Amino acid sequence: NARSIRNKLDEFSVQLTTNSIDIGAITESWLHNHIDSVYFNIPGYVLHRRDRPDREGGGVCAYVATGIPCKRRADLEHPVFECRWLWLRPHCLPRPLSGILCRIVYFPEVYAQENRDRVSFIIETLDSVRLAHPDCGIIVLGDFNTLVPNDILNHHNLKQVVRNRTHLDNILDLILTDLYKHYDSPIVSANLGTSDHSSVHWRPKTSRTTRANKTHKHSVRRFPESSINAFGRWVSSHQWFAGPDSTSSINSMTESFNND
Questions:
Q1: What contacts 67, CB < 8 A, 6 or more positions away?
Q2: Of 59, 151, 66, 68, which is closest to residue 106 (Cα–Cα)?
């Protein structure tokens, strides 16, 4: 019910704020169209949700920090599959990325044919995105259950980076991405509330070494102001060329300059 969801969300809110998390994703949100988003607001974050349209359970949602430009890509979504596509443009992006496309998914345990349809849909959608934005980063994350993502990984040169089990002895909560060089290995931590899945934290890499600013000192000899003034008077009054006229050659003028 809404109260149970709210209690879990309070714990989730603490995780977001105390760890300064930019994006928090939830699978099996259990939200539906009779529950208003206003009851699930978290200060400093914008909620993006996709409820299961036809029955209870399932669903996904994401909380994005208000400082991160974010746009929902409804044109990439499927009318039935439980997912949400977000186009993110963080202020600090690795070069030469133009943005990050993030897909939050929940794959229920279904027939094998339905899984194949879901995989085909992801591959085709990423194909269209790559064509329009060849320099964007890709992140597909969520609860994959029994779906094996090998075709997705191979087709788009992605890597699955979660290595520790997230549900009993299985790794069900995955992150497929081509940005693995820019992130640390995900950390799997305790579950939230009564959830039977562990939490997964994934942080970007930070510089571990700080270059010391080296200061080079040089000794400068200062001339007396009287000497500087005297030099100025001499420059302005000195006859640089001895009687040059219109017939003087360049060589004779150069010689006159050197002799003076």
A1: 91
A2: 59
What mean pLDDT comes out for the span 138-148?
A: 95
Compute the distance between CA of residue 49 and CA of residue 29 in angstroms, rounded to an integer.
Answer: 9
Is the distance from CB of 47 to CB of 41 less than 8 angstroms?
yes
Q: 112-140, pLDDT tens digit by residue?
A: 788 889 999 999 999 999 999 999 999 99
Q: pLDDT tens digits for 66-102? A: 999 999 999 999 988 999 999 999 988 888 899 999 9
Q: What's this model's pTM, rounded to 2 decimal places?
A: 0.76
Residue 46 pLDDT > 90: yes
Give residue 180's identity as a one-letter amino acid code: Y
Closest CA to 199 of 69, 43, 14: 14
Residue 59 backbone class (left: φ over 0; alpha: ψ -120 to 50; beta: rest): left
* Phi/psi of residue 201, nearest 5 degrees: -110, 130
